[in-house]
Amino acid sequence: MPDERWSSVTQRRLPRPSELKEILRPKPIVLNPTDRRLAAAHTIADLRTIARKRTPRAAFDYTDGAAELEDSLRRARQAYRRVEFQPNVLRGVSDVDTSREILGTRSALPFAFAPTGFTRMMQTEGERAVARVAQRNTMPMALSTMGTTSIEDLAAAAPDARKWFQLYVWRDHGAGEDLMNRAWESGYDTLLLTVDTPVAGQRLRDVRNGLTIPPALTLKTFADGAMHPAWWFNLLTTEPLNFASLNHFGGTVADLLDKLFDPTLNFDDLDWVRQTWPGKLVIKGVQNVDDARDVVKHGADAVLLSNHGGRQLDRAPTPIELLPATLDEIQDSAEVWVDTGILSGGDIVAALARGANAVLIGRAFLYGLMAGGERGVQRCVDILRTEMIRTMQLLGVRRVDDLRPTHATLR
C-alpha cells in the first residue's frame, strides 16, 4: 500500500508567453571579434589565456617568463596569496576613492604602467596604446630605454598623459644624457633609473625559444606563425620592429642586454644621474633595506622595491615582504613603491595596505595588449579598478589613503 506522506502530485501547466519572455534573454550578438574576446575576460588570468592563444610562443614567453627556475616570480605571487585581509563592517562604502598622490601629483588610480621592453613585439600598437590608456584613465606610464616607440612619438601619441622614462646607465654617459634631455624636453616628469641589471639574467624560455630582435623567421617560428597569422601579418605590414632609443641591433635578447648593461655601475653613476636629471628620480630594482637607505641619501625621491619581475636574479627577495623594514628605515624621506607578482586589484590593495605609496604593473597590461591592443589594455585597467573597489568596499575602506597594515596581514 503506497505511503500517503509521498502521494501528492505536482500540478503542471504550460508556461504563458509573457513568462517565457521574462526568462529568455539571449546575450546580444557582438560582431567585433576583439570586443567579443575581451567581454569574456573577467580577470587578468583570462586576459593571459587569450594572449597565449593569439601570440607566438617566443613573444608570449618573453612576457610570461622569468629567470632560471622562475622561483622569484613564483614566490612573489605566492606572497600575495598569503595575504589575509582584515575587514571592518558598518563603514558606509557606497563611494570609493581610488586616487593617490604619487610624487606630488594626484593619480586617479594608485598604480602605474611599468616600463617594458620590446612592447610592439607583443602587439603592434605597443607603447602608444599603453600611453593612450594612461591618458584616458589619468594614471602614469613609463617608457623603457628598450622601448619600441621613441620618446617623442610617445609624447605625441598621448600629450596629456603623465609620462615617465626608464633609463639604463650605459658605459657611454653621453648616450644616457641625450636620452634624459630628450625625455625632459618632451614632458616626462620622472626618471626611473634601473639598477638591478649589471648583467642580464638567465631567462631560459628566451634561450630555448631562440628569441631574437627583430624576430627571425626560422622553420620553427614559421610553423608557430602559421598558428598566429594575425600577429605575423601585423608585424610585416606595420613599421619595422626596432628599439627606438638604441642604434639598430640584430641578435638574441641576451646578446643585446649584455651589450647594453654596465657591470661597473655604482653610486658615482647615481650621483651623475641625480645632477643631470632635473625632475623626480626613482631608483628601480632595490632589494634590501641598506640599499634603500643609501639611494635616498644620494637623492632618490622614491625607491621601487623590485626584483625585475623575477627576470634577473632567481630566488631574489620578494618586494612586498621587504616593505615593512624599508618603510621603517627611510621613514618619510622618500616614497616606497613595489612591483612583481601583481595580477589583481586585490594584490594592489594588499600592497597599498602594507604601506606602498604606489604599485607598478607589467605583465598584467601586456596580457591585455596581446589579447586586444589598446582595448585590451583598457580592459586590464577596468578589471583591476573593479577588483580594487570591490576589495576596498568589503574591507570597509572608502579611500586608498585610509588603507593600513592592519587591513592586510601576511600569513
UniProtKB/TrEMBL annotation:
Keywords: Flavoprotein, FMN, Oxidoreductase
Superkingdom of this protein's organism: Bacteria
Binding site for FMN: 115-117, 144, 166, 194, 284, 306, 362-363
Binding locations of glyoxylate: 62, 168, 203, 308, 311
Keyword Oxidoreductase part of the UniProt annotation: yes
GO terms for MF: FMN binding; oxidoreductase activity, acting on CH-OH group of donors
Pfam families (alphabetical): FMN_dh
Protein name: L-lactate dehydrogenase (Cytochrome)
Organism for this UniProt entry: Amycolatopsis rubida
Classification of source organism: Bacteria, Bacillati, Actinomycetota, Actinomycetes, Pseudonocardiales
